Amino acid sequence: MNGLLWEENSVWIFVLVTVVLGGGAAMLTGRAIARSWRSFPVVAIYLVPLAAAIRFFHFALFGGTLLSFHYFVVDYLVILVLAGIGYRIVRATQMARQYGWLFARSGPFGWRDRTGEKTPT
What we know:
The protein is mostly helical and about 120 residues long. The chain has one domain (about 10-115). Helix content is about 65%, strand content about 5%. It contains three helices and two strands; from the N terminus they run αααββ. It has helices at about 10-35, 40-60, 70-100; strands spanning about 105, 110-115. A two-stranded antiparallel sheet has the order 1-2. A hairpin with a 5-residue loop joins strand 1 and strand 2. The radius of gyration is 18 Å and the shape is elongated. The relative contact order is 0.15.
């Protein structure tokens, strides 16, 4: 996997910079966009500068390649997945809370329709 997903000598550098730091910022970005009721493609647009910043951290701190399209895409896809997780958790909570008469929570990432349920009296 060395060379395919990360270019440094250690996987821990990739995990620290891309997954922990970048992924944490991406989850917060996904949550913030979901709280403002924007659609998911907005998340994808907002993550482009974040992926560039992650690529810069790899370059400045650990001697990675700054202008590498391959590693930029890898970093972008990792943070896109983590931002999607944050987005879906908040959106499921919003749908169940805002439209409680229509939807109920169905796990951490989804909601289900209440049309076939009996209403509590």
